[in-house]
Amino acid sequence: MLRKRPLCVAVLAATALLLLLPSGIWMKASIPEGVSPAEGLTGKVCRMESRNEGQAVYLKGTPEGCCLSDDEILLIYFDAEQPFSIGNTIRIEPPYRIWEPEAPANPGQFDARLYYQTQHITRLGSAKNASIIEGNVFWPGELLRRLRENLSIRCMRLFGETNGGVIRAMLLGDKAELGDETKNIYQKSGMSHLLAISGLHISIVGMSLYRFLRKKGCSYGISGSIGMIVVLLYGTMTGMSTSTARAVTMFVLAVLADLLGCSYDMLTALAAAALLLLIEQPLHVYSASFLLSFGAVMGVGILYPAVRSLFTAPHKLGDAFLVSLSIQIATLPLIQWFYWEFPLYSVFLNLLVIPLMGVLMFCGMGALGISFLSWQAAGVPAFLCRMILSFYESLGEGTLRLPWSVIVCGRPKYWQMFLYYGGILGFVLWRSRVKEREKWRLCMRTAKGEEAEQEEEQHYQKGRRRWEKKISLALALLLCCCLQLRFYGGFSFTMLDVGQGDGLFLRTEAGTTCLIDGGSSDVKQVGRYRILPFLKEQGVGTLDYVFITHTDKDHISGVEELLEQAGEPGGMRVGALLLSEQSAWEETGIRLRELAEAAGTDVKIIKAGMILTDKSTKLYCMHPKEGARYTDKNAGSLVLRLSYGEFSMLLTGDLEETGEREILEWGENISCDILKAGHHGSRFSTTGEWIEKAQPKLTLISCGQDNSYGHPHEETLERLENAESQWLLTAEQGAVTIRSDGKSFWAQGYKSKND
Questions:
Q1: pLDDT tens-digit profile of 28-68?
Q2: Which residue in 192, 174, 173, 172 sits closest to 182, CA to CA?
Q3: What digits encode the pLDDT tens for the residues 575-611?
Q4: Is the pLDDT of residue 206 over 90?
Q5: H or E element that contains 481
Q6: Residue 711 is part of a domain; what is its CATH number?
Q7: For position 59, which CATH number holds?
Q8: Domain boundary among 437, 462, 487
Q9: 608 is in which domain, residue-wise?
Q10: Is 362 part of any domain?
Q11: What's this model's pTM, rounded to 2 decimal places?
Q12: In terms of domains, do 117 and 156 share one?
């Protein structure tokens, strides 16, 4: 199938090569060397979007701006609507703030830098005011912007707040008013593709118009030109996302093929669209939207014909199921790679929702169009849209209530993805070869006569086809099982970069998973955006134990989020929550206990002398003792000593000098290979005597970059240096991962790994 399409093979090879290269070679530095933003920011408005609070303005560089090159964009947020138009040259008035998109500091963390740079956005900013220097207006872009804003307002009036946000996302690519709860239902159930402008939208907008004009007697040239112009304008108005650009390019090529009297080949058009996008921005090859959009179409164009040749569908519903199944098989590794989980029932769910999507699109567009003439008349198609959207939401909520609706699987390895897609390619080539042989046999049967033909056909249907199906199903099962294999040999420990806070995760050789603290004082929703993505990326669906060293916010805020979301599909279940006796009866501790009990989590009290052990690893609690009370929460921090074979770690929470002295007076053995410094490297912890007794080869310090406390303090680092203990900071290294075989250990920072 692919051998007759050299462009497809070339693009696939180029894509594979780009994936093997580090994405950093395509990244651009946001601030040119020697240029200071304080000199002033001047740019030309190329795009504007209304947000829930204020406005987002996209600026391109100008000669006067001195901070942006011609192909770089600054996305700046204003607190209120600004009187700008597309094409205006503006100057940002002080005070303003400029920053770089955040690169991930933890495994699984969203790569904001990559996301923005695929759109050529190299810097973000916020400001209150700006002045117009030049009032030139680019009217085509400005009219499209005003039309989009007008249609957005009409959506909210016609469909209501909830449904209006969904229709805006589906028709206009505007997700500003899409509620978190609604978005969660679509994402978790596997219907999130309905919220993106895709081939279906372009087909309805462009191909329907093209065919309508042809039926009315317009020539190919006029019909095609109008169709292409409308589609290009629609794509531009909706923001021209990756999937939209792919669909627009393929539509234009389809119309051009019709105009030139040539046959249209979907795979060649797909390859041409991919080539154009990669030439424009090589970073697209690392983005989920690019790979999933093109992967889904390849599933229809390459895998579906092979599946269809083997499993005949007696009616349209069966055929639709095979299409949906082919897309799911083609994109399964990508979904697991980017989202670490997959919705189990999405194949069947899409059989119900996709057929109605065309009706929804026509009614939605019709309602918006009619609203310019009569609001009352527009209410009829709008009512039908609301009914369909209610049906969608009910289906999504219903599937999410089913067992195993969302399965956390973790990120597969490169070799697993290579083997999976190699198996699919082998299956496609095999079916292509069989199809050619069937054509040859058909010619032979025709030569032998009707009676021989029927007898041979029956023999083929009963024999060969049966074992071909068995082999195909066995291959599919084997590939899926191979994709789900996870190997966690030995012991691993990760100190997450949670900003100014603590978050420690460990997995023993026996597979026991523990989270020790999880919170931050400067990262909002740290549980949702840093801790939970990391756990899912690691394939953790259930935490066996969560330890709370003490109840300060920077140690529990993320744990609270995990417990609050534990009952949701794809939420993180927690087996047991362990607190000290004092923490359990503090106000924040009581709230934690209530959240845990509501989530079905056991709550246990841990105190000095208790040991938690499995086949390979032992966790020994050193502090605090039963009945101990401390006026300072830090002084009552849990202290755990971990041992795995000859390897050991000492985890101290926010313990300071008073608590350290207590443990030393009790005669506890605190010697360790790795020490987690107390209280983020404060000068009042990790004292000289403590370090001398512990003799750590490596000290880990969790602290936020440029934090207001000045952690780690210089005195602490000097004490570690005098003791010849190396140290690693999350502020510099990002997440720090330790692996051990029970004798030696290896440490690696996430940022240094990805540099």
A1: 654 443 334 445 678 899 999 887 778 899 998 765 554 56
A2: 192
A3: 999 999 999 999 999 999 999 999 999 999 999 999 9
A4: no
A5: helix 464-484
A6: 3.60.15.10
A7: 2.40.50
A8: 487
A9: 491-754
A10: yes
A11: 0.91
A12: no
